[in-house]
Amino acid sequence: MRKIICALAVMLLLPAFSLKAGKIITDSVQSQILGSEVKYNVYLPDGFDKSEKQYPVVYLLHGLYGTYQDWEQKGTMKEVADELIRSGEAVEMVIVMPNAGDPDIHNVYNGYFNMPNWNYEDFFFKEFIPAVEKKYRGIGDKGHRAVMGLSMGGGGSTVYAQRHPDMFSSCYAMSAWLDQQINPNTPEEKKDKFYYTCKAVREHSALDYVDNADDATLEALRTVKWFFDCGDDDYLVTLSFELHKKMALKRVKDELRVRDGIHNWEYWHTALRTALPFASRNFDK
Questions:
Q1: For 257, phi and psi rounded to 5 degrees?
Q2: Cα torsion 158, 162, 166, 169: sign
Q3: Are strands 118-119 and 255-259 parallel, antiparallel or unpaired?
Q4: Which of 145, 140, 151, 169 is nearest to 112 (CA)?
Q5: E strands, 116-249, in order
Q6: Given this model, what pLDDT does residue 1 score?
Q7: Longest Cα separation, the chain
Q8: Cβ–Cβ under 8 Å, residues 32 and 49
Q9: Nearest-10 crossing angle of helices 265-282, 77-87
Q10: pLDDT for 22
């Protein structure tokens, strides 16, 4: 009887030990464009090291005051990705979390756009994507690449997919910072690095981009699957409303979700559970 009980206990424990789980590693790219090393985290699905297969790639962007470590440390993205892949809600994928700033927003450049002495968008597309997808076996085409992020990263994701629709199959923007009012009369002594981050968001307005899009641009935007997700009490929610309305008027389909919530990690953690399956559904089969 004792042997039978022990055998049953081992059988019950086996599923827990056999659960598939990915891993997160930290890596870096030496950028000639930025003149610095740029760190990033990358999630590799279970079995990555034992295979030679290529994977779809998701670029997961952090927000203002954040770093490449946020999605792992605050968003528990590894646990979410593991669970979704195990359940079949998400396909096996490589998830890349690049660094685009520092919590010291007034003295360190932040953001995903080109600005004085910080040509991050050039770096991202000319250096970062090619290096990462070569090293981590990304399939490397529009049909197997997605971009998503929160706040500053949500705005960055949206604008990247607008300006490079040939690069991404889908975009999932959480609590997205899509535009910014700035004071044109700001004195020079007040123009710190945060000022230039705000100025870049204004100059790369996702709302203006749709307003100014010609027919060819609109047709390109229709090749991307769009999803905007923002809390009903988030101070940025009106921007998602405005962009959704502008896109509808231009016949560019998107999904807009407004849930109970504010601008915080509780919201983004739960959003990720929708974002990764959304990207998966829109990858080429």
A1: -120, 125
A2: positive
A3: unpaired
A4: 151
A5: 118-119, 145-150, 170-174, 225-231
A6: 52
A7: 84
A8: no
A9: 40
A10: 95
- Tens of pLDDT along 115-163? 988 999 999 999 999 999 999 999 999 999 999 999 999 999 999 999 9
* Residues counted in the chain: 285
- In whole angstroms, what separates CA 1 from the centre of its chain? 54
Evaluated on CA atoms 61, 55, 252, 84, the torsion sign reads negative
Strand intervals (E) in the chain: 23-31, 36-44, 57-61, 94-98, 114-115, 118-119, 145-150, 170-174, 225-231, 255-259
Would you say 53 and 45 are in contact if contact means Cβ atoms under 8 Å apart? Answer: no
- Quick check: 15 pLDDT over 60? no
182 Rama sector, left if φ>0, alpha if ψ -120 to 50, beta otherwise? beta
Helix, strand, coil fractions of the chain, as percent rounded to 5 = 45, 20, 35
Confidence of residue 29 (pLDDT cuts 50, 70, 90): very high
Alpha-carbon 36 to chain mean position: 22
Q: What DSSP character marks residue 125?
A: I
Predicted TM-score (pTM) of this structure:
0.92
Decide which of 100 and 1 is more confident: 100
Report H helices in 2-140. Answer: 2-18, 70-73, 77-87, 120-123, 129-135
Pairing relation of β-strands 225-231 and 255-259? parallel
Per the CB < 8 A criterion, the answer to whether 182 and 219 are in contact is no
d(CA 25, CA 43): 7
Residue pair 63/236 in contact by the 8 Å Cβ criterion? no
**What local confidence, expressed as pLDDT, does residue 83 receive?**
97
Place of tokens 């890596």: 27
pLDDT in tens, 256-266: 999 999 999 99
State the amino acid at position 15 in one-letter form.
P
Q: Are 105 and 64 in contact (CB under 8 A)?
A: yes
